[in-house]
Sequence to fold (218 residues):
Amino acid sequence: MHGKFVAYYRVSTEKQGKSGLGIEAQQHSVRQFLNGGDWELLAEFTEIETGKNDDRPQLERAMNECRLTGATLVIAKIDRLSRNAAFLIGLKDAGISFVAADMPGANQMTIGIMALVAQQEREAISQRTKEALAAAKARGVKLGGYRGGPMVNGKAGTEALQQKAAAFRASVRPLVTELHDQGMSQRQIAAELDRRSVRTPRGGKWTAKAVAAVLAAA
Fold:
């Protein structure tokens, strides 16, 4: 393999996450897959799934790192994706390149088909829930009332260039903040961002002043 990669691992319980069980095997799988080429593993993210929680913050961080650096997302295991609609749809819509260590032939079409199947199942569950609620209402069961939808901010936006700059600062802020919390100076953070090949809005080198602007916008 050649190029830049960001690895994403998943374990099913907090106990596995703390003990390293499962993670080490996935790390080994990724390195074996990449071995033999001119490659660089920029970062690794581990998701600890609990129950049926659909939140995938580490997946989002991994995909964001790929968007910022142009790296390819490498997944250790793809065997359970067909049961995880959030994971599937996130990969399908991310607009990034990815590869699976245990299924090198998987591609955007593979994920797209799996996502459609998972989405169909979600819609079927939703329809069954609606039918059950309708049946309960017909029996005289009092159901909860409408609580309103999300609030919409109708305030006019700023100019397109300012919006683009703000969006970029928001995308890179988690990484900059993490490095800052580790005790790095703004100059050190700039050097680390360059080392990781994180892009600036204009494609240039990072400076302490640019890092300060990202931190100030937090």
About this structure: The two ends are 37 Å apart (CA to CA).
